[in-house]
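Take a record.
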Amino acid sequence: MTRPLAVIVGAGVAGLAAAWWLDRAGWRSLVVERAPELRENGYMLGLSGLGFETARRMGLVERLEAASFRIDENVYRDSSGRELLRLRYRDFIRDLPYVAIRRTDLVRTLAENLPDSAEIRFGETVAGFEDKGDRVEVALAGGERVEAALLIGADGFRSATRQVLFGPDRDCLQPLGYYFSVYDVDAPKAFTTDFVSYAEPGHLAEYYALHDGRLAAMHVWRDRRPGLERAPDKLALLREVSARSHRQVRDLLDHAERAGETPVVDSLTMIDLPNWSKGRVLLLGDAAHCLTLVSGQGAGMALASAEMLERALTETGDLLPALARHEARLRPIIGRLQTRSRKMARVFIPQTAFAFRMRNFIMRHMPRSLLSRYFSGAIRSEIELAKQ
């Protein structure tokens, strides 16, 4: 019997995880990716909770740990270099398993472990599609027409698939009023820990020491101006944001410019849709329900939702009821995470000097047992919700 085919738009975490889990459900996949190769830019993430459990069931934990980073403590300093506070990830998640890894390495691990039933086609895009009821006709930009049983849009929070399916982005995007930027810089580590954050009202710059001696940099800042992701000179934008930051932040931007680095800049934006599928077209990962990096669960939920899709397909054996079941199980979890992200954004990047001082004071003096109870309890409750 011929396996049904899914065309998946996007070779990121959601798209590659979907191809892996669809194989378990008896499907084959064609993954089309606009870029000529796997994307290299990516920030550090902590994979825990549902995402970690899914990675474990995929047999990937050992490979991910081989590429992981040991980040025991994050030291926060102000623009003068004074230490503000120290946070340990273990204070948040207690004894729950986790792995700290770059998004790039997670994507590469997924790609290297795809089954034979999955093909990745780089430098290709979907030019159009039409749901025929019993199949989806997908036109590729290269000229090929593919008949598939399912089309999955896993093409990120600016998903072109979503815009075709549900209309203009203005109807579903919910900007949180923040931007982020990520880039690597070939510069010596000038701090004693492996993870340091330079914080000031409205702006946070974080640096991780990589295995090759380079630094991974991430900026997050408060800014309600629209369209900054389209700024022609991203480094000039970051210099504007970092004008009053610690000297180290500005020096590392100079290093990035001399090395010809091109930072990625985008907004922290949620997606609010009444449905994540229509007919034989499904949105997955950030295309459906972007959680933003504030949640710390975007990549993990992309993995987990792909597994939940396989479970729904296996249980029902019928595509449309399976898509409905997948969404019914996933939506309560996503709703909780999005609510948490909205609350955490104000704590993550306090806007005023007063709010900044209050945040630092509270975080310095709050019993770590309270932090642990809140975050580990939330992660465990999401694991339990996924079992229903």
Q: What stands out?
A: The longest strand covers residues 173-185. The longest helix spans residues 319-348. Residues 5-72+104-171+271-349 form a domain with the FAD/NAD(P)-binding domain fold (CATH 3.50.50.60). The mean pLDDT is 87.
